[in-house]
Amino acid sequence: MNGLCTDGVYKVPGVKSKVQSLKVQYNRRQSVNLADYDLAVVTSLLKQYLRELPDPILTSDLLSKFEDAGETQNTELTKLLISELPLCNKHTLTWLIVHFTSIIENEKYTKMNTTNFGCVLCPVLQMSQKLFSFLVTKKNELFPRAILHKYIPPLRCASPYLPSGKQEMTIELKKQESLLSYIHREMNAGFVCKTKEEELWDVQRIITQLKRKLKVLEKDNHKVSKEKPKKENHINGKFEAVGTQTQTALDRQNSNNSVLGKAEVVSITSDTANISNYDGSLVDDDIQTTTSDSDNEELVLQYESEELMSLIANLKDNIVQEKCEIDRLQSKLVSVGKIVNVREYFTCPIDETAVANSVLLTEYKMLQFQKMNILKSIEEEREAILDLKIQIKLAQRKHMGIV
Question: Where does the Rho-GAP domain lie (predicted)?
Answer without folding.
Answer: 1-155
